[in-house]
Amino acid sequence: MGFKSYCFKKSLWLFHFGGASCNNCDIEILDCLTPRYDLERFGMLLVGSIRHADVLLVNGSINKKDKPRLLEIYEQAPKPVLVVAIGACGCTGGIFAEGNTFAGPVDKIIPVDVYIPGCPPKPEAILAGIVKLLGKN
Amino acid sequence: MSKQTLIPVGPYHPLQEEPELFKLYCDGEIVKDVKWETGYNHRGIEKLAEKKSYDEVFFLVERICGICSTSHPFAFANSVEEIVGVEITNRAKYIRTIIGELERIHSHLLWVGLAGHFLGYNTVFMWAWKYREPVLDLFEMITGNRNSYAMFKVGGVRRDIENQKIPAIEGVLSLVKKKTDLLVGAIMDDPVIHARTKGVGVLTRQDILDFAAVGPTARASGVDIDVRRDDPYAAYPLVNWKVITAEAGDVFAKAEVRLLEMYESISIIEQCLSGLKKEKEGDVDVKVKHIPEGYGTGRTEAPRGEVFHFVVSDGSNSPARHKIRAPSYTNIATFKKSCVGQSISDATISLAAVDPCYCCTERLAVAIDRQSGHRIMNAKEIISHSASITDKLLQHE
Ligand code: SF4
């Protein structure tokens, strides 16, 4: 077992970064915490500070104002950290990729481990993505 | 003179799912001033709309805001249909109304949950979001997606609601009604919620008029406005319903208005469903071949208030200008009244009480050069810039 997989063996704590999104992906992430999906049964928790987190969830297209902040948050994260790009916007910029404020997509700014496509991805898809992430490491 | 402490909330704060920065200037526990900074969510949608064809703009405006993902296409459809001068079929009107009202139910449930969360009452949060799921399932059954429904088009809707699905919809509605009873009982009778929300974040009738606030925020302060009744569209003139108002103007009144509106929404949907049974199946679409030159406005009552779209057409395939105003834009300004003078712990629920939606409200932020402190564009320049664009468009006509 390598160092990285040792770090991610048990409960993962998640930090959510909502970029320039339409809010739907954000809501679906919150939805994962509610009784029907209940992400916490896997020991996962949405935390308030990136300094406590193992996983950075990024959704939404990244605009010019978000970009330096995303970089800063990534730098503040204790390493190793896993990055999940959620939604069409997080993966490619989606419908906003042609916008005049667009500065992404996420993987041009920080390294991404898992992509969860969909607009918005269903909570099941988000759960499946995060579980795959566990298997990958 | 006492010293003021700056408490930033955001831009990436665990309480808010959207990026937004509030600066609370506090003296001890008491909030003395609130400032609000935008731009984290700016995507340039009005400009993007000019690059897309009318059919594509529907998918774009749907993604202005995920929660009101029907209100914006609704208003856009209304404005383009005003340019074309087309009357849609009754069946399409009913379907549009059903989708709009289902959205109001899920949005209000979402708000109730979040409000509970802001109060530190997570049981309400979990319950409300649990009972929101059946509504989303209904959306999935009718439209194929839980959010962002892609139902609207110029001249009608994309998908019919087949009559055989109606009993299933009615079943879910009666379930939602039962659960709403439960939530209303739990919230209206809870002494803790009363203590935390009554007399908190009060907006008087005059404040509402001063800030031009709309939607449940205005109705909770006794201002009786509702676009569905004042400027009827879709099937609202065909069904019976009433506008819910309250007088107190505090957070509790806002919760009350929203909860009672859910009953109205359920009754509107039930009437629309019985209306659907009388119309011919599949008759949901009037073919529109060409969008002539001209301009049109569309208003709809979103869960948060009036959505306004203004579209200028130059006869081509895509809008020449598309202007959007979402309800939170005026509602958010009321923070200046509702939060100032409150303690910090009450300020959060006062901020949440108007159900602010920042992705709708996002505007160009004023840019300041860090080194020289020079404003790259100030408010006056932005206004004259916007006026010059309007002039150009008018000349074009
Ligand atoms: S991927 Fe779709 S749902 Fe998610 S933020 Fe982007 S536009 Fe919204």
Describe the 3D structure:
The complex is a heterodimer of chains A (137) and B (397). In chain A, helix 2 links the parallel strand 1 and strand 2. Chain A has a 5-stranded parallel β-sheet with strand order 2-1-3-4-5. In chain A, 35% of the residues lie in helices and 15% in strands. Chain A has a single domain, classed as Rossmann fold (3-Layer(aba) Sandwich). Chain A has 137 residues and is of the alpha/beta class. Chain B has 2 domains: 5-41 and 339-396, no CATH class; 45-331, Orthogonal Bundle (Cytochrome-c3 Hydrogenase, chain B). The termini of chain B are far apart. A 3-stranded antiparallel β-sheet of chain B has the order 1-2-3, with no helix packed on it. In chain B, strands 6-7-8 form a 3-stranded antiparallel β-sheet. A two-stranded antiparallel sheet of chain B has the order 4-5. By secondary structure, chain B is of the alpha+beta class. The mean pLDDT of chain B is 87. Classes of the chains: A alpha/beta (137), B alpha+beta (397). At the A-B interface, strand 1, helix 2 and helix 3 of A face helix 1, helix 2 and helix 5 of B. The site of iron/sulfur cluster (SF4) has 13 residues of chain A, from helix 2 and helix 4.
In brief:
The complex is a heterodimer of chains A (137) and B (397). Chain A has 137 residues and is of the alpha/beta class.
